Amino acid sequence: MKSWSDNIKYEHMLAGLSGGVVSTLVLHPFDLIKVRFQVNDGTVIQNRQVYTGVVNAFSTIVKSNGVKGLYQGVSPNIAGAGAAWGLYFFAFNFLKATLKDQQQVENLQPGSHLLAGALAGATTLACTNPIWVIKTRMCLQPVGVVNKHHYNGVFDGLVKLYKHEGLRGYYRGFLPGLFGVSHGALQFMAYEELKKKHSNYTGNSTSTKLNPFEYIVMAALSKVFAVLSTYPYQVVRSRLQDTQMQSKYTGVMDIFKKIYRNEGVVGFYKGIVPSLLRVTPACCITFVIYENIAHYLLDK
Predict the structure, then answer these.
(1) What letters, b where the CB count within 10 A reaches 16 and e where it falls short, cover 50-75?
(2) End-to-end CA distance of the chain
(3) Cβ distance 187 to 226 under 8 Å?
(4) Rounded Cα gap, residues 32 and 136, in angstroms
(5) Count of beta carbons in the 10 Å neighbourhood of residue 295
(6) How does pLDDT run across 157-205, given as a tens digit for each residue?
(7) Into how many domains does the chain fold?
C-alpha cells in the first residue's frame, strides 16, 4: 500500500527554487517600482520620491542612483522568491498527490486544486513573511539615509526588525497576506485546469512534458487571472509593512476604508501595470524552468 511519505518529492522544491531565483534576478526592477507605487497614497513623505508613471520611475531611479538603484532590495527578494517558490511547489505537489491517493483519481477537480493551493500558500507565507517585510522596507528605504530601520541585507534586517519590533514585526502584513493566499491558489488551479484541457485535447497524460511555448501560454494566462482577482491585498500589505506609513493606519480595515475614501477603487490597483509587467514574464520564466528541471530530476 502506498504511504503518504511516498509523495514527498524534494525535486519539486529544488526546481521551484531555481525558477524563482532566476526570474527574480531578471525582473526585480519592476518589483521595486511596483512597491513604490503601492505605498503612494498621494501625500508627501520626506525622502520619498513620487513618480508620474513607470517610464518616469525608471529614468528617475537611474538618474539618481544609477542602474544599481533598480536593484535596491534585491537580496531579500531573491531569498524570499526562491524560498517561496520552492516551498510552494513542494507543498502543492505533495498535497495534490495525497489528495489523488485519497480520492483514487488520476486528475483532481478544480476545488481540490484550490484547496491544495490554499494550504500550500498558507504554509509558505508563514515561513517567508519576515523576508517579505525586509524586502518591502529595503525597496523603500532612502539611499544614503541611515537610521534604525535601515537594513544592509536580509540577515541584518531580520536582526534589527526583531530588536525594534519583536516577533510581531516579522508578521506585519500577514493578515492581508493570508487573503493573498487565494492568489496562488487561483493561479495553480487555473494552471492545472489548463494542463487538463490540453491533456483532453491531445490525449496525453497531464504529466507529459510539454514544449516551452505551451508552458509559457498556460503560465501567463493563469497569472493574469490571479493578479486581476487578488491585487488589492498587495497594496494593503505593502502599506502595512512600510515603516513611514504605519502611523497613518490602525489596521487592515482602516487601510481599506481610507484607500476607498481618499483614492477610490483605482487606489486598490496602484502599481498593477509594473506588477503585471514583472509577474507575468516572471511566472513564465519560473514555470518553464520549474517544469524542465522537475522533469529532468524526476525522470532520472
Answers:
(1) ebeebeebbebbeeeeeeebbbbbbb
(2) 24
(3) yes
(4) 8
(5) 16
(6) 899 999 999 999 999 888 877 877 888 999 999 999 999 999 999 999 8
(7) 1
Total-model pTM: 0.78
> Considering only CA atoms, which of 172, 185, 142, 182 is closest in space to residue 255?
172
Supply angle C-alpha 208, 212, 213, rounded to 5: 110
pLDDT tens-place string over residues 85-142 = 999 999 999 999 999 999 999 889 999 999 999 999 999 999 999 998 988 888 888 7
19: enclosing H helix or E strand: helix 10-38
Identify the three-state secondary structure at position 208.
Answer: coil
What are 282's three cell numbers? 516572471
CA 58, 60, 61 angle in degrees (round to 5)?
Answer: 65
The cell for 215 is 508552458
201 residue type, one letter: Y
- The answer to whether the CB of 44 falls within 8 A of the CB of 240 is no
Which residues, at least 6 apart from 125, have a Cβ–Cβ distance to it below 8 Å? 174, 177, 178, 180, 181
Which of 239, 103, 266 lies closest to 176 in space, CA to CA?
239
Cell 510539454 maps to which residue? 210
CATH of the domain at 180: 1.50.40.10
Range of the domain at 114: 4-298
Instruction: Please give the Cα distance from 55 to 60 (Å, whole number).
Output: 9
Look up cell 508552458; give the residue. Answer: 215
